[in-house]
Amino acid sequence: MNNYKIDGFDYCELYVSNAKQAAHFYHTALGFYPIAYCGLETGSRDRVSYVLKQNQIRFVLTSPLNNDSEISEHILNHGDGVKDVSFTVNDAEAAWKESTERGAKSIREPQLLSDDRGETIIATIEAFGDTNHTFIQRDNYKGVFLPGYVVFENNLIADPTGLIHIDHVVGNQPNGEMQTVCNFYEKVFGWHRFWTVDDKDISTEFSALRSIVMANENEKIKMPINEPAKGLRKSQIQEFIDYYNSPGIQHIAMSTKDIIDTVSKLRNKGVQFLNTPDSYYENLSERIGDIDENLDQIKDLGILIDKDENGYMLQIFTQPLQDRPTLFYEIIQRKGSNSFGKGNFKALFESIENEQKNRGNL
Ligand code: FE2
Asked: How many helices (H) and strands (E) does the chain have?
């Protein structure tokens, strides 16, 4: 039992080489709206951050303003990537104290931040690799994001794509590290194993992976932890590790209530998705049974479907969001199913392997 409660994902912060341009992409392509900013104009001397929001999802895009900072070092080592997966908690001090007492490394001790809109308490621990978890206690804060940020003044038009909340965030580990990281989440946070797959479930002729989904008590936080498994050729997880140079966040899954509408909008805005082989749809009806959606539209958009005993789910994966084959996004609509798409892995892997082949990395 913990002496604090996690209410959900608070934000994901990415360290990127050009936050101004990345913010433009998150707005025009993904349908997020820039709500807050900090930078030279607000007294931030070493970094600039844009906060973008859509429904319950918040991204913080941060770039360094000089060379000798941990941000520029992070970008040098990893390229653009996720630095922090933060959680909203009811007691940030208790979260930090319990986590560090149970073995987590402290990155930032609990700190009270305040401005004329109220106060927040934040604290940070190390998760894996250079990725952190920040605890945010914001119940006494009325401002746009956090103290230190101002409203992002602009005349942009909001054009949301129907993304609602973060369903799960996935961490890739080097071979042999998956269990260690899951044990860390069990010990430090008291999380449980929600779902697992091994390489017998997820393998194609060439590549394979193992995955364990870790979840917190109320299961609002789900973090699948992957590692490569031995295949004939290089696993996609190993490709990630090779280009990220360490463990890190592989993908963030965002939910929608209408995946056909959301994926149509994203495709119209230029977001590129993994191709689904035509063969995937050949016996889909027998495998899935009746669904509410129009199968022709599903096929046109390349959406994948899987089911379990509780219902079905629809999902699709973007191409990597930067030139390195590292971070990508998943769009997911759950219709009863809590699955992570085991039945889709084979079809999906064949598609990913095609992309890997095009990059000369298979
Ligand atoms: Fe996923």
From this structure: 9, 17
Residue 320 sits at φ, ψ, to 5 deg, of: -55, 145
| Category of 357 on φ-ψ map: left (φ > 0), alpha (ψ -120 to 50) or beta | alpha
Whole-number Å distance, alpha carbon 253 to ligand 1 midpoint, is 6
Question: Residues whose CB is under 5 A from ligand 1 (ion)?
Answer: 253, 330
Paired with 169 in beta bridges are: 252
Q: Are 30 and 271 in contact (CB under 8 A)?
A: yes
Domain carrying residue 108:
6-151
Amino acid, single-letter form, for residue 157: I
Over residues 189-219, the pLDDT tens digits come to 999 998 777 656 655 555 678 889 999 999 9
Q: What is the residue whose two structure tokens read 């860390």?
A: 184
Q: Please tell me whether residues 183 and 287 are part of one structural domain.
A: yes
Give the Å distance between the CA of 331 and the centre of ligand 1: 8
100 and 48 housed in the same domain: yes
**CATH for 57:** 3.10.180.10
CA 285 – ligand 1 centroid, Å: 23
Residue with tokens 């129907």: 162
Which residues, in sequence order, are bridge partners of residue 312?
Answer: 307, 336
Q: Are 62 and 187 in a shared domain? A: no
Q: In this predicted structure, what is the pLDDT of residue 206?
A: 56
Query: 226, exposed or middle or buried, with CB in 10 Å at 0-12, 13-18, 19+?
Result: buried
Name the residue among 101, 114, 190 with its Cα closest to residue 146.
Answer: 114
Cβ burial of 24 (10 Å; 0-12, 13-18, 19+) is: middle
CA of 242 to the centre of ligand 1 (A): 20
**Distance from the alpha carbon of residue 222 to the mean position of ligand 1, in angstroms:** 10
- Going from the Cα of 339 to the center of ligand 1, the distance in angstroms, rounded, reads 10
What is the token pair recorded at 78? Answer: 């990893």
In total, how many domains does the chain have? Answer: 2
pLDDT per residue as tens digits for the range 239-270: 999 999 999 999 999 999 999 999 999 999 99
CB atoms within 10 A of CB 274: 19
DSSP letter (8 states) at residue 325: S
